[in-house]
Each structure stands twice: as structure tokens, then as C-alpha cells.
Amino acid sequence: MDVYNVTADAETFTANAYLATGERPTLVDAGAMAGVVDVIRNYTDTVDAVVLTHQHGDHVAELDAVLDAFDADLYAEAGHPRRTDALADGDTLQIGDESFEVIATPGHADDHVSLVSESALFSGDVVVHDDGAFENGSFGRTDKPGQSRERLIESIREILDRLPAGVEHMYSGHGGVFHGDVRDVVQTALQRAERREPKYD
Questions:
Q1: CA 14 to CA 82: how far, in whole Å?
Q2: Deepest of 22, 100, 190, 199, by most Cβ within 10 A of its Cβ?
Q3: H helical segments located in the chain
Q4: What is the pTM of this model?
């Protein structure tokens, strides 16, 4: 399964949006980069599904454009006018060529989910490799209304509990893609989150 960050060249603030090609071309998050549909078409003529890790604006601003262009199914935990399939903890769905388990991971957002297969983790904003605050293991901010550091910590622990041993690829909502010891990155993020210090001064 090949995975491409189709918002990598954005000049304005956006989440990473990942196109997984293969048997079931799927977009994980739509991002906020104008023109993302044209970038997707550089890789595929079809997108069967869009899966949302959560519905913060930087992850969904271009969602309507993507759905209009590809007539894809929309998977989301929270309600959305164009949702075709609801996500819940423990669900499985195919992304590209692999089967992924849905893990409910609130804290940064109430509707946040992460997606894990035998080889890859789509972690949204719960865990990231690098984001300007920390390198090699950071976590989503929890200082806005409705967010919770305690729930985020529990969510990171849940990812660790359900992370297969062979996961070597992490695709997070911000920062770079990571290939290597994903468990070590997630454990480092957990340790930093557990300090309960402000992420940003």
C-alpha cells in the first residue's frame, strides 16, 4: 500500500491529508489546502472513501470539494451531513490494501479516532512525530475549550495497548511521516503528555 501526503506542498495552514492507493483508494482527512483534488488526481482517478480522524477545520475544510469530485463514501465518528458510515471503537475498515481497526482516541477532539493495521498507524492529532513543540514523539494540544489532557493520555495508552508489534509507519495529522519504531514514538509522546506541563508557552 502506497500512502501519499497530498497536502505536503501547502502554503497555508492545513492538516496532513493522506491518500492510500491500492485495492480501495482512500483519503484519510481532507485537509484545508485549496487544489487538493488536483493533487489527488495525480495519483488516482477514483477515491472510494474518505475517513476523518476528527472534524477540526484544518482536517475538513476541503471535504466537500473532495466528496463532490469523487463521490466517495464518508466515514466519521461524529455526525456530518454527508456521512455515509459511522465509525465506532473496534470497527474495522479497509484503507488501501489493508484492514484497519478504529480506536476511539478523544482528548484533542471528542470525535477523534485513530486507525491501526498490522503495519501502519493513522494517528490524527493525538500522537505526532514532530510538530515544533517536540521531536520524535509529541501529542495534540489540549488547551482549548472542550479538550482534555487526561482523556488524551488515556487515548495514547489505548493506542499502545492495541498497537501490533509490526507497526513501522505512522501518518499523523501534522509534522512529518515517520517510518521506524512507532511504538517508541508513541511511548515518548505518552511520557511527555503525562508530565501535564503546557505544550506551548
A1: 21
A2: 100
A3: 36-41, 57-60, 63-70, 149-162, 182-194
A4: 0.97
